[in-house]
Design brief:
Length: about 170
């Protein structure tokens, strides 16, 4: 039974790692579930402080992943209209495009990457900024997306480390 739980936890870890790159899959929470499975389902356990810290980190990373594109737009000179556009684009990408992605394939993933970019660009153009200025703010949105992906990947690598440390 313990081997089955370790295999199941490993599958959750893999899903968490994949979720670092696919915004549709909640990577950090899945990786955290793997740690919980290992803790509760096997003889090896983690300290309560460790589990609480990793759980809070997963929650914070999920929230930051939504905020980074907005912050990137703001940092690259985007106005409130660009930030709002990035937010609207992010919501469109999160709600509408994954549904289309199920039936149209990579369009959903591509939309999750491009929607905040396009939303920021449209918002900046709406305020009368030049295409170059709008593109700079939109690029900030893309950098925010990359920052979110990076932090989710780091969390997944850390959970892999602790998983292998305890399970081997």
């Amino acid at each position: 039974m313990e081997i089955l739980i370790i295999i199941l936890a490993f599958l959750f870890l893999l899903a968490g790692l994949i979720g670092a790159f696919l915004p549709i899959i909640p990577g950090p929470p899945l990786a955290y579930i793997a740690l919980l499975l290992l803790h509760w389902g096997t003889d090896t356990g983690f300290s309560a402080n460790f589990l609480i810290t990793m759980g809070i980190a997963a929650l914070v990373i999920v929230l930051l992943d939504y905020y980074f594109p907005i912050l990137g737009t703001k940092r690259m000179g985007g106005s409130k209209a660009g930030v709002r556009g990035s937010t609207i684009g992010l919501l469109v990408g999160l709600i509408i495009l994954p549904i289309l992605g199920i039936s149209i394939g990579p369009f959903g993933l591509l939309g999750l990457i491009l929607c905040p970019f396009l939303g920021a660009w449209i918002g900046e153009r709406w305020t009368g900024k030049s295409p170059d200025q709008a593109a700079k703010a939109a690029f900030g949105s893309f950098l925010g997306f990359l920052a979110g992906t990076f932090i989710k990947f780091v969390y997944a690598v850390i959970t892999f480390y602790f998983f292998f440390q305890k399970s081997l």
